[in-house]
Design brief:
It is built from 11 helices and no strands. By secondary structure, the chain is mostly helical. Helix 3 packs antiparallel against helix 8 and helix 6 packs parallel to helix 11 (202-215).
Length: 216
């Protein structure tokens, strides 16, 4: 946060000259953000990530691919809904569209996309599919859909994909994938445990683009 706060302070005294009340409000809000981020990071590191790895390591022992898919989808969906970046984007979309696109529909569309592709990415770890091929196919489909979707939703789709790699969903999904890969023989945690978040971020793009095409 220090570079951001420092940049705003320099702009305040050289270029912007915002009202003192607004500038003080910015400083106070920045302090609250710093305190909140510290608590958030500590909570994720101490409790959420270790539990995510444990859950991921236990799932393959049940020998049920369906169970792994359901859990991966549920975690992907549940961690995306409260993701701060997703909430901010959804509010901005509702404001910019003057209520035509509600924040709740944006949040659930993004969460649905993350959940579905997080499940597919976890299945890839179990079945040994190529992440390179899946990423290429996912982005190729997104590019093709972007050619037919409404212009305003193309921008939203790709922003929707980018905000999913946030401070909450990213660590949890990665921890789950690392847990799954850790108990599978002959697997590399680096090649199999990572890439899940990058692939899952394609999901919101596909969902939003498909919805845009169907509604156009």
């Amino acid at each position: 946060m220090a570079p951001l706060i420092g940049s705003i302070c320099v702009l305040q005294f050289t270029v912007v000259h915002a009202p003192p009340g607004l500038f003080l409000q910015f400083l106070f809000g920045s302090l609250l953000a710093v305190a909140g981020m510290i608590l958030l990071f500590v909570g994720i590191e101490v409790g959420i990530v270790p539990m995510g790895r444990y859950v991921g390591a236990e799932l393959p022992k049940r020998r049920s691919l369906a169970l792994i898919l359901v859990v991966a989808f549920s975690i992907g969906f549940a961690t995306t809904v409260p993701e701060p970046d997703v909430l901010v984007l959804a509010d901005q979309v509702e404001h910019a569209s003057r209520g035509a696109i509600s924040s709740s529909s944006t949040i659930h569309a993004i969460a649905l996309g993350v959940g579905v592709l997080a499940a597919l990415a976890t299945a890839r770890i179990v079945l040994g599919w190529s992440m390179r091929g899946m990423l290429a196919a996912g982005y190729a489909i997104a590019i093709v859909l972007a050619l037919f979707a409404p212009r305003e939703l193309v921008s939203l789709a790709f922003d929707g994909g980018s905000v999913t790699t946030g401070v909450l969903s990213g660590p949890v999904i990665i921890a789950l994938a690392l847990g799954v890969s850790s108990v599978l023989g002959g697997r590399s945690a680096v090649s199999d445990g990572f890439g899940v978040v990058g692939f899952a971020s394609v999901g919101p793009m596909l969902i939003i683009l498909v919805v845009g095409i169907l509604r156009s």
